Amino acid sequence: MRIDIITVLPELLKSPFEASILKRAIDAGLVSVHFHNLRDYTSDNYKSIDDTQFGGGAGMVMMIEPIDKCISKLKSERDYDEVIYMTPDGETLNQGIANQLSMKGNLIMLCGHYKGVDQRVRDQFITKEISIGDYVLSGGELGAAVLCDSIIRLIPGVLGNETSALTDSFQDGLLAPPIYTKPRDYKGWTVPEILVSGNFPKIEKWREEQALEHTKTRRPDLLED
């Protein structure tokens, strides 16, 4: 998989990809991530990427020209499955979206800033709009990092245990059940006996029941469908 991220703050984005699972995936050649500074595609001496709104109003708007130049250059070099715009009014990211995108080959992510991008960018270039929640950030970079992490960890070979991602919360529409590790008894706080029984069919049934109860308690909205 190749991910190209268009941003005005590439330095803000780089650190998450220089550590942990993301770095391991990049070093293993399972994914490549490339940052493109939008100011490199401007045509004036000030490297302007934004201007005032037509019709008046507070806040600046990212201009279409540098975005067009950047996306067009990338598309001239390879085909892309999706051109994603990170925006508060996009589709809210969930596990299903992460699963779908993890199976793609090449992705472009455009990070918004200010009041957002000229609407013509969204009309002409963007194939998918994604939000990471109902709140506004200073820019789309942190959202892009979250999206990348949610996608990359699902690529086969990235996680040490291939089945680990399959048992995450939301994969089956439920939250994950409680989990425990050693010691079995800590200050009198003990692990449920079923988990040390060795009866794996009963353990799986217990986990299913706990996941359902956990979801009912914390996220009943997930059960509405």
Report what the structure shows.
The structure is a single chain. Strands 2-1-6-5-7 form a 5-stranded parallel beta sheet. A two-stranded antiparallel sheet has the order 3-4. Strand 3 and strand 4 form a beta hairpin. It folds into 2 domains: 2-152, Alpha/beta knot; 169-223, tRNA(m1g37)methyltransferase, domain 2 (Trp Operon Repressor, Chain A, Orthogonal Bundle), CATH 1.10.1270.20. The radius of gyration is 22 Å and the shape is elongated. With 225 residues, it is an alpha/beta fold. The longest helix is centred in the last third of the chain and has 19 residues, at 200-218. The chain has 7 helices and 9 strands, in the order βααβββαβαβαβαββα.
Count of individual beta strands = 9
Shape: elongated
From the 3D structure, determine the CATH topology of the largest domain: Alpha/beta knot
CATH architecture of the largest domain: 3-Layer(aba) Sandwich
Largest sheet: 5 strands, parallel
- The CATH class designation of the largest domain is Alpha Beta
Rounded to an integer in angstroms, the radius of gyration calculated over CA atoms is: 22 Å
How do the strands line up in the largest sheet? 2-1-6-5-7
Mean pLDDT: 93
